[in-house]
Specification:
With 505 residues, the chain is an alpha+beta fold. Helix content is 43%, strand content 23%. The chain has helices spanning 2-27, 41-70, 77-85, 112-115, 179-190, 255-317, 322-348, 361-378, 397-414, 471-481; strands at 29-36, 90-97, 106-109, 121-122, 133-134, 143-146, 154-159, 171-177, 203-206, 212-216, 228-234, 237-243, 246-253, 357-359, 382-388, 393-395, 419-427, 430-437, 484-488, 496-502. The strands form 6 sheets. It has a 5-stranded antiparallel beta sheet with strand order 3-2-8-7-6. Strands 15-17-18-20-19 form a 5-stranded mixed beta sheet, covered by helices on one side. It is rod-shaped, with a radius of gyration of 57 Å. It starts with a helix and ends with a strand.
Length: 505
């Protein structure tokens, strides 16, 4: 059993080593997507053309504003509103004055919905409070143009020439321009004049509001973020060209993980190999010990046989003497001990075989009892037998003899000066033999351990009693080989063993 356990442990360690090595090898490799940069020369050239188109549209819109603001008459609300509605993106037209002029600023909302959410511009001078959307101070500056660095909305202003106005009456015309509307109009104008170069992967022109204007090629399945973004800035927003590169899968190896897993696998394999080698050496030593015991037992058997033969011859020639009987009994005890050792060694080597044949079980039992009767009498044991058996049964008589001899030997050793019985009967095609004594008994907790080899109870039960601890182990093994079982039966006093063997048909 221990040999099988060591083989199982060795196999598990080798399997664990293989699994650790395979897992470490696999985990040390992972796939990684790498970019394959593409030639963006044609795309850069297309971006330059689109930027030029955007710049032209911005300049054209600025020119329209200049023409518009030059002809505006802010005092005439209807004509001013009509003129501003013809140009996209204008939300409000404001006429702003100096505070010292005593005139109130006027604001004409062109797109009522949009203008309501916009702050109104106002002039600002030194030492005065800033308005919600302040412009520049009125000084010698004149001309038309965009108010730089202003917050949204964009403001296009016209400052009149100081030489052409009455002192104190100078004012500023400010147009509030919605950049998103102008950008949408520019996008619409661009649609028919945009040509991106053909590509296998995706190129996109995207408007400031995020809408895709033109798309060429197929979308990249590996990443949703563009690999290249080219901004196309204007005053009204930034268009952009997004493009994607190809991907290729590259296997990356984590050398540290691979090496550490291989080292762990080698350590496990070496532990398994060392365990196997140690078990092999232990098995060889155990085999040598068993072989030695077997050889010694065989060597003892020959002189013991000669000793018993000479005792029998001497008993015939000499008058009966108690000492001569005692020598004969002890020689028989030594013979039973040698038989137990030989049976155990043959079982360990897998060479123990039983051979069933017709025999008179009653005669076998009586002969065994006759051998033990002097020993039982000397120990003060009142022994009785009850045999209810047919004349012939098919069993291995030698194995049955050894089983009963071990049971009677235990009675002789552990139950002195008390009655004991041995019953044998047939019940439902089963041979039932029960050996009972009135000795100190066996604790219930030890009822299974007593059948293990070399186990002897470590209490007053075995005090002063010699033995090897093989008797019950051999008896149970022989019972199982005969197709039966040897059981310990709990009783109120003493010990009781039951042999139950299934008889062949």
């Amino acid at each position: 059993m221990f040999r099988n356990l060591h083989h199982l442990l060795f196999g598990l360690l080798l399997l664990a080593a293989a699994l650790v090595g395979a897992a470490g090898w696999r985990l040390s490799m992972h796939a990684e997507q790498q970019r394959v940069p593409q030639d963006r020369g044609p795309l850069n050239e297309a971006a330059g053309h689109i930027q030029q188109s955007l710049n032209k549209l911005e300049a054209a819109y600025t020119e329209h504003l200049r023409d518009l603001v030059a002809g505006l008459k802010p005092d005439e609300e209807l004509s001013t509103k009509a003129a501003c509605e013809r140009l996209v993106g204008i939300a409000r037209c404001s006429l702003l004055h100096r505070k010292e002029a005593g005139r109130i600023d006027s604001h004409i909302d062109i797109a009522t919905t949009l203008a309501a959410a916009l702050p109104r511009p106002a002039l600002w001078q030194r030492n005065s409070e800033r308005g919600p959307l302040t412009l520049i101070t009125l000084d010698a500056a004149t001309g038309d143009g965009w108010l730089e660095n202003s917050a949204r909305p964009l403001l296009y202003i016209r400052v009149p020439d100081a030489r052409l106005t009455t002192p104190g009456e100078r004012s500023v015309i400010a147009l509030s321009v919605i950049a998103d509307e102008v950008a949408a109009a520019m996008t619409q104008s661009l649609r028919d004049d945009i040509h991106l170069p053909p590509a296998a992967l995706l190129h996109q022109l995207i408007a400031p509001d995020g809408a895709v204007i033109v798309s060429v090629g197929k979308a990249s399945a590996s990443d949703s973020i563009a690999d290249s973004v080219q901004p196309l800035p204007t005053r009204f927003g930034a268009w952009r060209i997004e493009s994607w590169d190809a991907r290729r899968e590259v296997i990356i190896i984590d050398r540290a993980l691979r090496i550490s897993s291989m080292i762990a696998a080698m350590v496990l394999a070496l532990i398994g190999l060392a365990t196997w080698w140690h078990q092999r050496q232990s098995s060889q030593r155990a085999q040598q010990r068993v072989s030695f015991v077997n050889q010694v037992s065989h060597e003892l058997r020959t002189p013991l046989t000669n000793l018993l033969l000479n005792l029998d011859l001497a008993s015939e020639d000499l008058p009966a003497h108690p000492r001569l009987d005692h020598v004969h009994q002890e020689a028989a005890r030594l013979g039973r001990l040698i038989d137990n050792v030989l049976t155990f060694s043959r079982a360990e080597q897998g060479k123990l075989e039983l051979h069933a044949h017709p025999c008179d079980i009653s005669a076998v039992i009586r002969s065994i009892v006759a051998i033990f009767q002097p020993l039982l009498d000397r120990r003060g044991i009142i022994f009785s037998t009850q045999l209810d058996l047919p004349p012939t049964l098919i069993l291995d008589a030698d194995a049955l003899t050894q089983i009963i001899a071990n049971l009677l030997s235990n009675i002789e050793k552990y139950a002195p000066y008390s009655p004991a019985t041995l019953t044998a009967s047939i019940k439902n095609e089963h041979l039932i033999i029960i050996a009972t004594d009135n000795g100190p008994g066996i604790p219930q907790a030890e009822s299974q351990r007593i059948f293990e080899p070399f186990v002897r109870l470590g209490n007053t039960v075995t005090e002063g009693v010699s033995g090897t601890g093989l008797g019950l182990a051999i008896a149970r093994d022989l019972a199982q080989r005969m197709g039966g079982q040897l059981l310990f039966v709990p009783t109120e006093r003493g010990a009781c063993f039951k042999l139950d063997v299934t008889l062949p048909p």
